[in-house]
Amino acid sequence: MNTPVALVAQGVGKRFVIKKAGRTVVALDDVSIEVKSAALTALVGPDGAGKTTLLRLAAGLMVADTGTMTVLGIDAATDPQAIQNRISYMPQRFGLYDDLSVQENLDLYADLHGVPQDVRGKRYQRLMEMTDLGRFTSRPAGKLSGGMKQKLGLACTLVRSPELLLLDEPTVGVDPLSRRELWEILEQLVGEENLSVLVSTSYMDEAARCAHVAILHDGKVLAQGTPESIRDTAEDLCFAVTPPADEAPRHLQARLLDDDDTVDAVPRGGKVHFVRTRATVEQGDPDLARVLGASRAEPMPPTLEDGFMLALRSKVQRDLSSAAAVATSTSTSKPASAKTDQSVIEVKDLVRTFGDFTAVDRTSFSVSRGEIFGLLGPNGAGKTTTFRMLCGLLPASSGTLRVAGHDLRKARAHARQQIGYVSQKFALYGNLTVDENLTFFGGAYGLSGTRLRERMAAVKSQFELDDAGHAQAGLLPGGFKQRLAMATGLLHAPDILFLDEPTSGADPLARREFWRRITALAEAGTTVVITTHFMEEAEYCDRVVIQDAGKVLALGTPAEIRRQAGETDARTFDMEQAFIGIVEQNRKASRGGAREAA
Amino acid sequence: MNAMLAFLRRVANLCRKELLVILKDPASRVLLFVPALLQSLMFGYAATLDLREAPYALLDQDHGPAAVQLIANVEGSGVFRRVATLHNENDIAPIVDAGKVLFVLHIAPRFEQRLSAGETTPVQLILDARNSTTAGTASGYLGAIVSRFNADWRQSHGGGTSPLTVDVRAWYNPNLETRWFMMSSMIAVLSMLQTLMLTALSVAREREQGTFDQLLVTPCTPAEIMIGKSVPSIFVGLVQSTLVLLIATLWFHIPLAGSLVTLYIGLLVFTVACVGIGLAISALAVNMQQAMLYTFVLMMPLVLLSGMTTPVANMPIAMQWLTTINPARYAIHLVQRVYLEGVGLGTVIGDIVPLLIIAAVTLPFSAWLFRHRLV
User: What ipTM describes this predicted complex?
Assistant: First the structure.
């Protein structure tokens, strides 16, 4: 019954006219890809590469300007309804009804898709088993955690058995544990029901699990093939280096990134993993020793991410070093000596309850000046609550909280003068221009006249917003919005910068750029407190705290965390494995405890 | 001193941002002027309780000169227009049921004969009282016409003049036009609706878009944020009032009897009280949808219990009590007295003091709500 190819796109092009901004955006340009039946195909690429547009074309929701899109043997332009009857599409923000229970949401989607009553029972049972939501069928969808919501969304998408499943970034904002569960469900479906899946993602480890990967960039296919074939393009170019004991991996990483011949560098497992350009390596890489100093590089096997970065770097020549250099020179007047032992945030026995639910339970930690401090934890672990209390957005139920030397309970206004805050979603005035937003927030922090103009000019050049001053903030592309949010947060040169999941949904390239700025800021003496779902980003942090169910499970440097998770010299973990290990150990222990108590 | 200056600067900054946000959004820019314009024109023209050319049917079973004289009086008033002439009593019910006429005037046989004999002579008026207001008005008009007829009849038939006559002088609205009353009420009511909506939505919108958090992490205190929200709303409310005032004076030519200063002092106090209510709504609402819903739920009783459509004195006692906490009641009273009567500040102090009390309750209350819900 199945054709060997579920979807064929041939020379597909699509452009949008943005009337307000008065420009035309080429979303897709001559894209040709195939999705094989009964297999997983991944679409990866930076923001705005055209991933969502391609999925929407495949779902028959839009018609391509040029080329043909054939889905399950049907032309998407002529008979979209016939396609929609046989596929399922899960958009980025899936339409769950928050006030309806899990079961009611399922029923609703089963009704919408006309699933006959007699097959429903069996199907529900199977979906609930796979998603492990069986215990929560009567809970309103709005009360589920982020990961559970995504699983329910997937279950609703799968109430009938589609032949092709289209998923648009299903794991954005989902913690590593839930992410792993979601992928297990997908692989199970492909294996048992011969489902064909086309999924867009910004996680390379997810793409590596697929049979076929297509890298999109600026609406064009940059590379495609099996994960192995893309990975192997970086063969012989990958190395790892251990920094000297007195240097943090991120400093060495920054030095490596600032070198023109480095394709990519990331801190990983206490080392720095980096990729050099092929031209340099073939010439024997004469500059490397100078950049590395005393440390020795050892060759490493490539990963899919290395291949992806190599492909992207061939197109994008974004100069990370210049932005970072400006960051160091203009950001703050604080000593460049960076980290000291002086603590700027002190949290003792912090508790926050909502009714009889304890969101944060007796949490204590401190953050030193110039430190990058990460708050990690699964969805609903209490890290957002902790974060909001630190910023003064939520009062604590009990415990002490000192930020920048001020007791948050008494001198809130003084403490706030010292902090900058960048929220997860864009939270500036969308219908004001970049300059108007900056002027307003500058004024709110007491800046005016020459000082305000100086600071505005400084942050605008630091975040490459010089030409965007008169652009309406709400109409800026995603990456610009985030840079503007950062610029606003740093306008008053705060001692501490709070960042709430700043990289959620961002592609690896944008994340590199972001972290390059953050490490430069920390170097200049700004303390950074950050929450993230990307566990590999914990490697950039000096110290991290892992929370689950409101309690602190682990606190320490990334190396200490890995050791706590059971890392030995023989068995190395990356941060994600360490995180999953620690959370699962703890959950098992508390479940065991509960059973004994019962 | 310095702290005061910093405070003022922050508040001014917040106000400027608020106005920018309102004025830069094309949708809200339209919302500022178009509804005020349309509604005041609509209320001015459509919301009138005056009768003009009201349809009626005549059943004249006498046909004498006296009857003809009475009918001439009715039709000469310009208020009523005959749409049907009936021939027997069985025709009355169908035409009233069909809603074709507001009333049927029935002149019985022997009308002239009884009049001449000096007997009390009934004229029957069958009213369609499904709309009690217009029915009442029509009956009032007819009563007046019949009294005039009586007086004329006595005079011409030697009965002497009537011992008592009513001589009506309608002060402040000589032609008894509903429009005068409506438009002056609209000056207060329309600005109330807009101010409520604007303040209620402004905080909810910021909360929904996440900008409120961004605002709360700045050193601005909740009090400053509240003032920064209130001042632009008050300003917009007064602009709305001005717009209606201009339409009333320039378009409908309703003469302004009192002083503008008195009028604006009253309106300012009233708008402050409304902003207090709007802020309380916005502190309670989680999102824009809720804020909108709360505002609509409040608007109906605020308008109904204001005395704009029905006099407060006609309401049951419990309702009259409720009107005492309704700012619109005082504002409408105040505007009418200043606009139509031309009274001074001293006379309307009885309206200003309750408005001040309402503002003194709602503003601190919403501040309290803010503190306990958010920070």
Answer: 0.77
